[in-house]
Specification:
Shape of chain B: globular
Strand content of chain B: over 45%
Number of helices of chain A: 0
Oligomer: heterodimer
Radius of gyration of chain B: 14 Å
Radius of gyration of chain A: 13 Å
Order of helices and strands of chain B: EEEEEEEEEEE
Shape of chain A: globular
Number of helices of chain B: 0
Chain lengths: ~110, ~120
């Protein structure tokens, strides 16, 4: 059971918009700690997609966006493409655990 | 170019020990509080350990506390994960990960560089 809760899977057709939620608690997201998002393609290491809730590293398309509110955060992907098919993870810091915490991951399927 | 290269994984029996290494290039390791993150086969990411803000003290997930320790050799730009009393449930790909930015107040911005991972298999 992960400290941050994500839906196991989401899907969408090419060109559509999907969102992935990440729900935490008062000791992590709700305490004001930043949320970061990663994309993991099969057989590869995770790649930083969104940092500090809303910022995109250089090279990440603006089709990817992040938001945060209270004890949850969301990743939105617009204009879905076939190569967006991957696992997506949220990450934050938890003051009770004194360490980083990850969501369980969400598998995105492009129909 | 920033690169991280892990090594040291392998097949061990329960109760045995292993030391993982992560050699960093393209940046100065001592300026960053590196972390280890693992991923069991078919499972999600799990944070394992990180250096503290002072850089010399480690923080650990409850699942490895007392068995794993993190250290580094700044002269070799290398961070280590010493794993003792290994259990079957420690089987995973272990990644070292670099924080996006660090200051005297700590590190933040997520992990912007990851190694390719090294597989640890614990099996009787």
């Amino acid at each position: 059971q992960s400290v941050l809760t994500q839906p196991p899977s989401v899907s969408g057709a090419p060109g559509q918009r999907v969102t992935i939620s990440c729900t935490g608690s008062s000791s992590n997201i709700g305490a004001g700690f930043d949320v970061h998002w990663y994309q993991q393609l099969p057989g590869t290491a995770p790649k930083l997609l969104i940092y500090a809730n809303t910022y995109r590293p250089s090279g990440v398309p603006d089709r990817f966006s992040g938001s945060k509110s209270d004890t949850s955060a969301s990743l939105a992907i617009t204009g879905l493409q076939a190569d967006d098919e991957a696992d997506y993870y949220c990450q934050s810091y938890d003051s009770s655990l004194s360490g980083s915490v990850f969501g369980g991951g969400t598998k995105l399927t492009v129909l | 170019e920033v690169q991280l290269l892990e090594s040291g994984g392998g097949l061990v029996q329960p109760g045995e020990s292993l030391r993982l290494s992560c050699v960093a290039s393209g940046f100065t390791l001592r300026s960053y509080d590196m972390s280890w993150v693992r991923q069991a086969p078919g499972k999600g990411l799990e944070w394992v350990s990180s250096f503290s803000g002072s850089g010399d003290r480690g923080h650990y997930a409850d699942s490895v506390k007392g068995r794993f320790s993190i250290s580094r050799d700044n002269s070799k730009n290398t961070v280590f994960l010493h794993m003792n009393s290994l259990r079957v449930e420690d089987t995973a790909v272990y990644y070292c990960a670099k924080p996006r930015y660090c200051s005297s107040d700590g590190c933040s911005g997520g992990f912007d560089r990851w190694g390719q991972g090294t597989l640890v298999t614990v099996s009787p």
